[in-house]
Structure formats: C-alpha cells, structure tokens
Amino acid sequence: MFGADASVFAAVFVALYAAHEVGDHWAQRSAEALGKGGPGWRGRWLCARHVMTLAAGKAAALGLAAVVLGLPLNVWAVLAALTVDGISHYWADRRTTLMRLARWVGKGEFAALGDGAAAPAGTGAYALDQSWHIGWLFVAALIACLGVG
C-alpha cells in the first residue's frame, strides 16, 4: 500500500501543480475570482463552480500524465486526492476562513499587506492563499500515490 516510486509521486505533484496554476489563474472566470468569497449562496456557488472546474483540469492533467508516462495510478486514490484537494481549496477560497486562520496563527498583519483592488496577486492574502493550495497539492499527490507499488 505504501512505498510508491518517488518518480510517480514527482510526476503526480507536477501534474497537479501545473493544472492548479492554469486553473486558478487562467481557467477561473472573473465572476468566480471576484465573487467566490462573497456572502450567501451566490458566493458559495461561485466558489464551488471554480473548484469543480479546477478539479476537472487536475483530473485531466493526471490522466494525461498517467497515459503518457505510464503511471500506475489507482482511480480511487486519485478521486480521494482530488476530493481532499477540492475541499481544502473551497475552504480557503471562501476567504474569511483562511483570513481567520491567518489571524489565529499570527499572520494577520502579513495577510493584510498590499491593496487587493490594485494588485490582488501581490498581496499577503494572495501569498497565503497560494501557499495553502500548494501545501494541499503535496498532500493530494501523496494520497494519489496510495496503492501504487
């Protein structure tokens, strides 16, 4: 069950990371980027739609990598990995949750750095958001490798 080849893990992580970068920055609709942290059902729906699109892109990247590189991935492990990643992504992208965590661990001042309206990708909140996502990509890659011998 454990002990997957490190090269399989590396390929899985790279595929997830590349799909994350494209999905979080190019595939995400403007309405999702601007509204996914908003209140009520509209904000929740925009966030869920973004996460579903992102998960589809990650699944496609993993599928392509598996075929081209001959990766012996278990479909159930991949589904579990994408589910864990999707939940963590949704949780962070609702924004208030990640900001509460940042304040709780003493990163509130860093999270507040920069003008989100002028440079949303250059703020402390953005850096914390992306590092959160990448950390969970690592966990997802480990999960996706379960059952690979």
TrEMBL record:
It comes from the Bacteria. This is DUF3307 domain-containing protein. It comes from Thermomonospora cellulosilytica.
